[in-house]
Amino acid sequence: LTMIYLFLLALILPIFQVSAGADLDVPSNVANRSMSIKGQLFCGKKPFEGAKIRLFRVFQSNAADDIADLLDVKNTYITGMFQVEGDTARFPRTKTEIQPYVTIHHNCGMDDKQTSNYGYKRIGIRLPEDYVTLGTKARKVYDFGKLNLELDFPGQTHDIKFEFKD
After folding, report:
1. Beta strand pairing status for 133-134 and 33-43?
2. Measured between alpha carbons, how far is 104 from 75 in angstroms, rounded to an integer?
3. Distance (Å, rounded) from C-alpha 145 to C-alpha 166?
4. Is residue 95 a contact partner of residue 57, using CB atoms and an 8 Å limit?
5. Closest to 83 (Cα-Cα) out of 53, 58, 126
6. Is residue 71 within 8 Å of residue 87, measured between CB atoms?
7. Tens of pLDDT, residues 122-160
8. Is the pLDDT of residue 21 over 70?
9. How far apart are CA 73 and CA 83, in angstroms?
């Protein structure tokens, strides 16, 4: 019985010590959220290298992406695979919610002249919020699956102002 009391005291004592402090500071990872997405892109039957995947904190209108809400950006590898992961650690505590939104910029099926005339194709997709986790490291990864970029997607646009920089 004494062991049980000691065990309970060890659990309760830190709570009293923390609550007795005048200046409680909430750890930053309590307010932070994170998200991770992986997938693979194809152009026809070939893996598509070099598509730019951008993960945003909130929905981005088709007019222009708000880079201030950007969580992560990556290019697809030679295998067409990608993984983007981001968190809200750099945002004020009033902007730690994530309503995940990803954009894919690519020129699958276009030659250099078409790309310079029309710009890169832009696909924007909202993602399930079920994959947003607390903290600065995503604990779940949304599997985007395999996507063939030859398709014309609903809401797909051409972004003439998009610069494909690394």
Report:
1. antiparallel
2. 9
3. 24
4. yes
5. 53
6. yes
7. 999 999 999 999 999 999 999 999 999 998 888 888 887
8. no
9. 9
Alpha carbons 50 and 29: distance in angstroms, whole number: 33
* Termini Cα distance of the chain: 64
Match 């690394």 to its residue by tokens. Answer: 166
User: How high is the pLDDT of residue 20?
Assistant: 42
pTM given for the model: 0.77
User: Pairing mode, if any, of strands 142-148 and 33-43?
Assistant: parallel
Report the alpha-carbon distance of residue 126 to residue 132 in Å, rounded.
13
3-state secondary structure of 81: strand
**Lowest-confidence pick of 45-49, 57-61, 74-78:** 57-61
Q: CB-hemisphere CA count at 13 Å for 129?
A: 7
Q: How far apart are CA 53 and CA 72, in angstroms?
A: 8
- CA atoms of 52 and 123, how far apart (whole Å): 11
Q: How far apart (Å, rounded) are the C-alpha atoms in residues 146 and 8?
A: 51
